[in-house]
Inverse folding.
């Protein structure tokens, strides 16, 4: 089912390239862009920079930030696409788990049920020495990730020095689809996420 992006809202997709991998990686999140005054290029840069300056910094130095792609909802027709180039890379030089092992971030909202929960998967951010054989992060490493996750959410919500673009949960088409739901918490899970297909 297609993602519903109403006017005043957008989906941000941050593109990451990792050394030796021919395929790009993406992290995505919904935004309330009603307060940017129509300057969607600035909103794309601000929303992408909010991620690269917080959570993104914890990636390995082999991961380079390429661009933020904003899909902005329109009153009829397909979403408007706006792209803002990004600069920089991760800062960690520690050996990382392979890219099919990702940190899992839960997006919490006030909406009950499955529709009120979202997720973000971030690869190349888990140090080999901080995850057990059964995929559990050490408390200290989880705390480090959580500090930046909270900073990321706060930067989107507060907008300093850019206009605020609060994170929202966008919903798929279907009966009784709710409006975009404000994200009130962004929480790192203790158990990592894995996907076999990421290495295929």
């Amino acid at each position: 089912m297609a993602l519903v992006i109403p006017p005043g809202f957008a989906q941000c997709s941050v593109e990451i390239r990792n050394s030796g991998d021919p395929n790009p990686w993406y992290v995505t999140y919904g935004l309330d862009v009603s307060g940017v005054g129509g300057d969607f290029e600035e909103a794309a840069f601000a929303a992408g920079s909010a991620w690269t300056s917080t959570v993104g910094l914890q990636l390995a130095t082999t991961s380079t930030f390429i661009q933020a792609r904003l899909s902005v909802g329109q009153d009829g027709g397909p979403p408007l696409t706006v792209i803002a180039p990004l600069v920089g890379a991760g800062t960690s030089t520690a050996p990382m788990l392979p890219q099919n092992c990702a940190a899992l971030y839960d997006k919490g909202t006030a909406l009950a049920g499955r529709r009120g929960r979202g997720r973000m998967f971030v690869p190349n951010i888990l140090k080999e020495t901080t995850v057990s054989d059964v995929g559990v992060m050490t408390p200290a490493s989880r705390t480090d990730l959580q500090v930046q996750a909270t900073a990321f959410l706060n930067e989107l919500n507060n907008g300093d020095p850019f206009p605020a673009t609060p994170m929202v949960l966008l919903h798929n088409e279907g009966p009784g689809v709710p409006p975009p739901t404000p994200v009130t918490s962004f929480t790192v899970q203790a158990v990592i996420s894995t996907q076999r297909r990421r290495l295929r």
